[in-house]
Amino acid sequence: QVQLVESGGGLVQAGGSLRLSCAASRSIFSLAAMGWYRQAPGKQRELVARITRSGTTNYADSVKGRFTISRDNAKNTLSLQMNSLKPEDTAVYYCNAWDYPVNYWGQGTQVTVSS
């Protein structure tokens, strides 16, 4: 098992930046992949960014060039640097860990971008 705790959400103006962090309760080195998802009110949860154990990343088209995902295996943390934020980025952001075949989720952190 792995527990995930997100931090770093908040209120920011459009064009601003935020950095989300996800702390894992154990080593993340062996996890097949980790990622960030988000869910806006009335919408389905969607993938924002994902990074595999080998370091391969993929991003939703809507965040490419603005968001950067990274993992620090030594500190057991996953991060999401979010730049040039837009009001449509407003959502609850969830940290995810895929320890095949089980998916683990954090409790989420709110990101609100004002126009």
Compile the SSE list and pairings.
Layout: E1 4-7, E2 10-13, E3 18-24, E4 33-39, E5 46-52, E6 57-59, E7 67-72, E8 77-82, E9 91-99, E10 102-105, E11 109-114
Shape, per Cα inertia axes: globular
Radius of gyration: 13 Å
Give the strand tally.
11
What helical percentage do the residues reach?
Answer: under 10%
Which spans have pLDDT < 50 for at least 5 consecutive residues? none
Q: Main β-sheet: number of strands, strand sense, barrel status?
A: 7 strands, mixed
| Mean pLDDT over the full residue set | 96
Distance between the ends? 40 Å
How many helical stretches? 0
Structural class: mainly beta
Q: Can you write the helix and strand succession as a string?
A: EEEEEEEEEEE
Q: Strand fraction band?
A: over 45%
Question: Would you mind describing this structure in some detail?
Answer:
The chain is an all-beta fold and 115 residues long. It has no helices and eleven strands. Strands 2, 4, 5, 6, 9, 10 and 11 form a seven-stranded mixed beta sheet that branches. A four-stranded antiparallel beta sheet has the order 1-3-8-7, with no helix packed on it. A hairpin with a 6-residue loop joins strand 4 and strand 5. The protein is globular, with a radius of gyration of 13 Å. The mean pLDDT is 96.
